[in-house]
Amino acid sequence: SYELTQPPSVSVSPGQTASIPCSGDKLGYKYTCWYQQKPGQSPVLVMYQDSKRPSGIPERFSGSNSGTTATLTISGTQAMDEADYYCQAWDNSTVVFGGGTKLTVL
Amino acid sequence: QVQLQESGPGLVKPSETLSLTCTVSGGSISSYYWSWIRQPPGKGLEWIGYIYYSGSTNYNSSLKSRVTISVDTSKNHFSLKLSSVTAADTAVYYCARFEYTKSDVTWFDPWGQGTLVTVSS
Lengths: 106, 121
Hints:
The complex is a heterodimer of chains A (106) and B (121).
Chain A: E1 9-12, E2 18-23, E3 33-37, E4 44-47, E5 61-66, E6 69-74, E7 83-91, E8 94-97, E9 101-105
Parallel strand pairs in A: 1-9
Antiparallel strand pairs in A: 2-6, 3-4, 3-7, 5-6, 7-8, 7-9
Chain B: E1 3-7, E2 11-12, E3 18-25, E4 33-39, E5 46-52, E6 57-59, E7 67-72, E8 77-82, E9 91-100, E10 106-111, E11 115-119
């Protein structure tokens, strides 16, 4: 079965750029989306179709996907961005989630 | 704005069937796909399956033998049944609208608030 791999944790200083990778076999040929989940809350879509931002998501969030890695980038990271982030793709008629990355802003 | 709300028992005994309903408000259930996703405490997200408003379904192969998702367009809700549950099925269960385009672009939005289901005797 298809797998998406994310690092368990990423740290970033306030105001700096955070990059969260998601890797999978030939992932660049698939479309990836990203969810943000804060403690005790439901996941929220922050990126879809690799690089499209839903309405209401700040411009500091951007996405890319090429080769075997999709990346969610947060520019000018703020304390409110501290959360778990999950990537998701579609393979062989199956939804696949990455294991999640905890973003710490310190 | 479409909103989803899960409902159902928060405690289920081992070997019994877990049953949840997701009520859609602020929009029609028609013309969309709808899905269930779960998250064990402290762990990641697991897709359970989806249903189209017409009734066609697709399930995660790891759960397929125990899962049934159904839809009632007259009540604007869809439901999940998971049979023969064990402690490993303890999780927060979310319902969500599933966007699925012809180009295989997929995403979930919006999500319900989630409901914790504990499997215990």
